[in-house]
Amino acid sequence: xxxxxxxxxxxxxxxxxxxxxxxxxxxxxxxxxxxxxxxxxxxxxxxxxxxxxxxxxxxxxxxxxxxxxxxxxxxxxxxxxxxxxxxxxxxxxxxxxxxxxxxxxxxxxxxxxxxxxxxxxxxxxxxxxxxxxxxxxxxxxxxxxxxxxxxxxxxxxxxxxxxxxxxxxxxxxxxxxxxxxxxxxxxxxxxxxxxxxxxxxxxxxxxxxxxxxxxxxxxxxxxxxxxxxxxxxxxxxxxxxxxxxxxxxxxxxxxxxxxxxxxxxxxxxxxxxxxxxxxxxxxxxxxxxxxxxxxxxxxxxxxxxxxxxxxxxxxxxxxxxxxxxxxxxxxxxxxxxxxxxxxxxxx
Length: 347
Ligand SMILES: *Cc1c(COP(=O)(O)O)cnc(C)c1O
Prior knowledge:
The protein is an alpha/beta fold. The chain has twelve helices and twelve strands.
């Protein structure tokens, strides 16, 4: 047998560590929500008739797509759901990219994107952000010849949103598709949803993993023009969303009050951690996500990561010339943040 060359040559994406003995760690490394999902999700499980699981789920997840369409004031044929938004990102690569149609990403951003390109045998053009993580002035020009831009806003790992005007300019001037990965948009003051009404080439992806505290459930979705969604529908697995994830996601989205309450708590702790880091001499990137990207006074991210790990606090370190100067810390509960801040003071 032969293994396809790009697969044999790749290392594979490495997700953040998930320690087995969770109770002994303060886990601030994968941007999970420190609060449980809405109690309405538990109700779904309690009232579930397991005999229903005998049947295949609705292949187009209509109930969830209807809920999402109402929430964002779009039509149902503008929505596709998936097994986490990572599934959605993969669909986009498969719809828009091949050997002749490359993908483009900003650097630094989500490190999964290049791995998805590699699997699809499409090249991935990495366009460097400015030193302050803003878009370079010639960003659109650098996209020339590619067919899909994947860009998170707020960006990961920086937490910085890109200005709507900058995204509008990209959608307007670029001939390819623009996937705005809004995994963290619920923690931000803005989003790019308005662009859907203006451009046929914009795709917004969202997830239930972060703000809805359902990372273990695996539900994500994209909103785009009906023409683009129709192509996504052809490419997706026939049953890419199980019945239980579908029902729980619908329940979570129906509890807007709970979402707002937990998001507000996280934003409050984000402000507190940001102030504490600044006081300790860290350079803090102003985050609109549920994490903070900050650089210690000696610019040695690895040292901070390792010292905290010894104290059973897990944060994220990304090696690299630029990213290696920083650490990324997920916002936890007030109690977790107090322990973290004490540990950082003692380093
Ligand atoms: C966490 C994250 C996602 C996706 O998560 P899923 O759990 O697959 O929905 C997508 N994009 C970015 C930038 C993320 O940080």
